[in-house]
Amino acid sequence: MKVSAVFKVRSPEIRALHLTWIAFFITFYVWFNMAPLASSMLKSVDWLTRDDIRLFAIANVALTIPARIIVGMALDRFGPRRVFSVLMVSMSIPALVFAFGNTMSQLLVSRLVLSSIGASFVVGIHMTALWFKPKDIGFAEGFYAGWGNFGSAAAAMTLPTIAITLFGGEDGWRWAIAQSAVVMAAYGIYYWFAITDGPDARAHRKPRKAMAMEVSTWGDMLKLIVWTIPLVGCLGILVWRIQNMGYMSVTAAVICYLAIVAVIIYQVVQILRVNVPILKKGVPEDDRYPFSSVAALNSTYFANFGAELAVVSMLPMFFEETWGLNAATAGMIAASFAFVNLVARPMGGLVSDRMGNRRFVMLSYMFGIGIGFVLMGMLNASWPLIIAIAITIFTSFFVQGAEGATFGIIPSIKRRITGQISGMAGAYGNVGAVVYLTIFTFVTPTQFFYIIAGGAFISWLICLIWLKEPEGAFDEEYYVSSVDRMIEEQELAKAQAKLQQG
């Protein structure tokens, strides 16, 4: 697939790509609509404090992790068109509640619920995988993610102007947030009618059971359990942070911890319920896949997207304090880390397509991330600012490219559970962000960069040992196993039976 292909909007798959990245762009625009208006909120609402805003920021990512897992399951069951549309329309409600909330509880709960919109990323990943062939999937996924992710930067650049210029007054921020929610709901309705789940009805293949990921061996089931625990267990860190900030009592925290443990137990039970019967019966050779590859990609997204979310939150202050810049200048320089997304992430997917070896590309990008953050750890006031900016862009290039390469591999691992694999890997990106941001509260920026570099090198080692080149990763069509055909025949038989009964 050539880069120029993205301009061929009459092509069905290109049209689907543009419809989907725009949906992702809008959801991220809404997800990050609070930060650029925080100062306006403090001026308008006299009972709000800076600590309240920090709490809202924590709430803004809290449910993204479990939401990505749940949405991943829903994707494989209902398809991305329905899930994306329902997600956009339903999440506009907490966004509107936040816009016009007049109490602390209204603002906090609505922001907490709205954090589920972060799961939108994996929906588009699955939709794009349904429309594009294996040989082109890297660039398509990278383009989708790179341009959609820019919604957060667009919110930062436009919402203050909209609030002040278009609406004005003390409540301008409320109407600016409400407007973004209304646009998202309207696009969600439009998306339902504008697109299908792939070019034909056979593109979306359902798993046997969507309550847990299917695996191929008993050892893989144990690995799945081990890698599932941190996804929910990570929420314990958020509970601990909120309690330490004084917004939660010890009793409430204990209740939250018990709820987290209960959810983990429930997930483990579902994994056993889904997989024990399948493994006892035996998985046909042509339907097996290595879960180790999924685990390796979980680690890459932890180390690249997790690092991106963490670094973006501290980079402006790092430049401001290290080189004595004003806040506006430091913010613009730090924004270069996000701007690279528009090019680097699609390029990561494109390189993955063109090189003919997706595993090698993944390893190269992860090693580059490690080198980049080691260089950033060496930065101090004695370095020329222009060199510091160049190193920041260099590092960002590898971070964003690695994200594109990760999702260039995922659709080829196991077609019918792409949604669940995407949801798990995507959730690990948020786990990485929570872990890194928590670590940042205890270390200096220099130590922080070295720690992130260490995470990238550990992920590189995991990929070197566990990541396997997916079979058929550059074929014209995705591989279809005997179990895929059996499930398709069963679905067809059910549909025919319903028609006969009707």
TrEMBL record:
Q: Where are the transmembrane segments?
A: 21-41, 53-71, 83-100, 112-132, 144-167, 173-194, 215-240, 246-269, 289-307, 327-348, 360-379, 385-409, 421-442, 448-467
Q: Which InterPro entries match?
A: MFS, MFS_dom, MFS_trans_sf, NO3_transporter
Write one Gene Ontology MF term. nitrate transmembrane transporter activity
Membrane as a keyword of this entry, yes or no, is yes
Q: Where is the Major facilitator superfamily (MFS) profile domain?
A: 16-471
Q: Which Pfam families match?
A: MFS_1
Membrane topology listed for this record = Multi-pass membrane protein
This protein's record includes keyword Membrane: yes
Signal sequence span is: none
Gene Ontology BP terms:
nitrate assimilation
The record's keywords, sorted A to Z, are: Membrane, Nitrate assimilation, Transmembrane, Transmembrane helix
Its GO CC terms are: membrane
Its subcellular locations are: Membrane
- The main place the protein resides is membrane
| Annotated family | Belongs to the major facilitator superfamily. Nitrate/nitrite porter (TC 2.A.1.8) family.
Q: What is this protein called?
A: NarK/NasA family nitrate transporter
Organism encoding this protein:
Billgrantia montanilacus
Upper classification of the source organism reads:
Bacteria, Pseudomonadati, Pseudomonadota, Gammaproteobacteria, Oceanospirillales
